[in-house]
Amino acid sequence: MSLRTFGNRVGRIEDPALLTGNGRFIDDIKWPELAHAAFVRSPLGHAAITAIDTSAALEVPGVLAVYTAADFAPLLKIDRLIVGLPSPAYRQDVNRPVLAKDEVVHVGEPVAIVIAKDRYIAEDAAALVNVDYEILPAIGDARAALEKASPTVHRGAPHNLLAEFDVAYGDVARAFAGAPHVFRETLWQHRGGGHSLECRGAVARYDANEERLTLFSSTQTPHTAMRLLCDMLGWDEHRVRVITPDVGGGFGPKLIFYPEDVAVPLAAILLQRPVKWVEDRREHFVATTQERDQFWDVEIAVDGEARILGVRGTLIHEHGAYTARGVNLPYESAQTVTLAYEVPAYHLGVKLALTNKVPVTPVRGAGQPQGAFAMERLLDRVARELNLDRAEVRRRNLVATEKMPYAKPLKSRGGMQVVLDSGNYPEMQRMVLDAVGWDDFRARQLAARASGRYIGLGLANFVKGTGRGPFEPVTIRLGPSGKIHIMTGAAAMGQSTKTMLAQIVADQFGGAMDNIIVTAGDTAVIPMGMGGFNSRQAVMAGSSAHLAAVKLREKTLAIGAKLLNVSADELDIDAGFVHVKTRPKIAASLSDIARAVAGIPGLALPGGIAPGLEASEAFVRDEMAFANGAGAAEVEVDTETGEVVLRRFVIAHDCGRVINPMIVDGQIVGAAAHGIGNALFEWMGFDADCQPITATLADYMLITSTETPHIEVLHMESPSPLNPLGVKGVGECGVMPSAPAIMSAIEDALSPFGVKITRTPIMPSEILAAIHAARREKLRADPL
Amino acid sequence: MSETRKIAVTINGKRYEEEVEVRWTLADFMRQQLGLTGTHLGCEHGVCGACTILFDGYSARSCLMLAVQADGHEILTVEGIAPSEDQMHPLQEAFRDNHGLQCGFCTPGMLTTLLEFLRDNPDPTEQEVRIAISGNLCRCTGYQGIVAAALDAAQRLKAAKEAS
Q: CA-CA distances (angstroms) from residue A370 to A299, A331, A571, B94?
């Protein structure tokens, strides 16, 4: 009997190499004659470049070259990185140059590249490149940037409005006009960077014999990188190969195509020597894209029973200095607000503001956590104002299970109808409440307060769009070695993509994982690919892998039938052999079967079967599979220090059918920890001149093991009808409830003080300030 | 700028005699000059812990040491943890079985840190494990799988010791 791996806790095929120091990450790529690059970057938020003098740098022994924009210009057919996802919302185009020519618009923008025999020398010389800057006004606050009198982020630009759009449905004016209750919240939401432990990197080699360029890049989107390089160089596709080696975490920023991804190959072409650049952490803080500020002004209208009548408001989203991805991030924020609930009317006006800071692009969750945060804060407000239980308010408004699939009157960024495909939202909330002891908590809280301790419980629901289409191709080949090779445009960056695909394919070939090789992220093995982002790979690549594997199994059995003189339906596959089900000793190895169709000169193929054993599929699905869940946080707040200790964190989630419970739990827990860090620790700060002030990991705090609680995970499996596997994405879901549940819990803990939280993250100093402000407010209202 | 010294260092039981640039960090020396790329660099300012090695048996950040400081000393890196090429150390097995790694970039530092910790504290509590790895950042796992792996490894090591 064949072993089934789908649904089981199967060990990862990635692990042995990674555990023994045998992984191959970008900084491990080595070629003879490899030269090393360091970038000269803008030290200013906004300045005009009046002169660049490279002479002193060129005199440093060991320096091979220094290139500026002028050196690259002759090689470039297109000299900007045109990467913005299409949208009618843009009001101006601000695309990044490879190297700044006459203006820099954020600290960290690359101005020149120094190539030397080692990185130490390259950095010495980079410090000697003399750039004359004329300081221009830098604008860092997204709200101020949109004011008429604001200086512009780009010299000569008409304004700082990058794009604007509305996400809306229903008659929101009417909903509010007749509403018994309207509550308004002004929220500041800040998220930091992706901060994968591995920074970015690029290693390029130009082979003059083949006239081909090979780029190793720690990218989540190798095929996009290949296409953009071809576009910019004016080359055809066969001349550029992009390979993604092991990637030490992605979390969003690595899906972006960067100036360094062009500058390093250009240097390799000019120098006729392979060139490596690996970003250091300081560079990561100033040159890798981040998420940052969103300013929300939203109100909710409810009836006397706390049923939602409408939600409306505005969102100002900080875009940074250039377009490095597009309008998708705030679009996802806006689209997510109402997803989990029945909201009859909605209108959010969204503006994207340019600022003199490194561009903003998605981090794990891509704007959706902010949308959920806005909604959950509003619902807590409703509960407080109407003196209702926070869970009860949500229960009355969650999308009812019997309405699934539930068409939201919303259009996706691509103009498609948003349909919640499956799930049981109220049950998820109930599971979390039961686990966390919601109903008994009040007594515990009062007892704690009696002993001077402030504990609180918070809740948040979420619905998360996953499985972004339209497709992700997979090719599977069974070679004469008897090994099965899976090739895909999907990109692995630590989320077990290779194991996931191997499991899906193994199930069609007897379940043996050790017979499978996966190449994810090499443009030479598969012509098309979209890559890793938006919790899409199990849904899109997984479905393609399944369809291709079913096809390849059929052909394998058909060849086996010819070789063994039986009919295909009498056969099964197990342990590397096709065998007759009733007489397992009558068998042919997978190697024999592959050889039978590999061709022998002059001999006919068996029974008219087409040559080779290969199947390719690109499962197409435009609609997103909506995963959902709920989270609850129990906190204790120290009212003397402002410290928040997360005592418990429970998350229930539904990602449809689970391919590997170990991996799914790992994704949920890891993302939840990321969200907890976002809520309590991570803040990317800048001063008034747009100088980053948190540019080391000592200043910018990533969550550590002692601040992370044991995260409890609960499961529900509502198969998605949208793909053959019934799966939904999981990678980003854990982030979703973290911040809103934690803020709700802190507010609950501090309810005796009347503290209201309208921001994320919140640090101890701000909690103390909020307690003091609430105390002052109370004194004013009710003097002794 | 290119002053060098000759150093002798033993890494994973193998003795190296090398001419090193005096300003090169130990991490860069091991990775680039010796090709021992298992040790990873995540921040190069001593915070993330990915580059942690055992230096004469004690955990140290190889990004904050110079190669010349290793002269005459003994180092263990991730490449030297497994007893043989086809057998992993119980700590590595526990990481595999408890999903103690995702991208694997912080893993070398986690393994070396925990090797030292479990040697000194063979029967730890969960909280002690969390404190032990609190100087090592992981962005993937939320630390849960790593903590579980460490506790599991402690049991495995204890069982192996009792068996022998």
A: 15, 11, 53, 37
Neighbouring C-beta atoms of residue A430, cutoff 10 Å: 16
Domain B90-163 adopts which CATH fold?
DNA polymerase; domain 1 (1.10.150)
Residue of A575, A608, A577 lying closest to A593 (CA atoms): A577
A502 contacts A518 by C-beta, under 8 angstroms: yes
B105 and A494 in contact by Cβ < 8 A? yes
Domain boundaries in chain B?
A: 4-80, 90-163
Q: B159 to chain A nearest CA, in Å?
A: 22
Q: How far apart are CA A125 and CA A111, in angstroms?
A: 14
Selecting from B45, B82, B130 the residue whose C-beta is nearest the C-beta of A706 gives: B130
What integer pLDDT is reported at residue A1 of this predicted model?
43
pTM above 0.95?
Answer: yes
Distance from CA of B162 to the nearest CA of A (A): 25
In this prediction, residue A201 carries a pLDDT of: 98
Tens digits of per-residue pLDDT, A142-159?
999 999 999 999 999 999
Q: Which residues, 6 or more positions from B127, have their beta carbon under 8 angstroms from its beta carbon? A: none
Given a contact cutoff of 8 angstroms between Cβ atoms, the answer to whether A498 and A14 are in contact is yes
Residue B133 touches partner A, C-beta closer than 8 Å? yes
- Ordered domains of chain A (ranges, CATH): 15-21+469-617 (3.30.365.10), 399-467+625-784 (3.30.365.10)
Phi (first) and psi of residue B30, to 5 degrees: -65, -45
Which among B2, B26, B107, B144 is the top mutation candidate for probing chain A, defined by the most A β-carbons within 10 Å of its own β-carbon? B144
Closest partner CB to A705 (pick from B77, B101, B147): B147
Residue B85 pLDDT more than 60? yes
- Mean pLDDT in residue range B84-89: 94
Q: Which of A20, A494, A706 sits opposite B82 (nearest CB)?
A: A20
Q: How close does chain B come to A662, measured CA to CA in Å?
A: 7
Q: Which residues are CB-contacts of A627 (< 8 A; sequence separation ≥ 6)? A: A423, A463, A464, A466, A535, A653, A654, A655, A656, A728, A729, A730, A733
Class (C level, CATH) for B4-80: alpha beta
| Cα(A696)–Cα(A283) distance, integer angstroms | 10
pLDDT of residue A25: 98
The pLDDT assigned to A389 comes to 98
Question: What share of chain A in percent tops pLDDT 90?
Answer: 93
In DSSP terms, B17 is beta-bridged to B8
Looking at chain B from residue 33 to 52, which residues have their Cβ under 8 Å from any Cβ of chain A?
35-45, 47-48, 50
Asked if the C-beta of B107 comes within 8 angstroms of chain A's C-beta atoms, the answer is yes
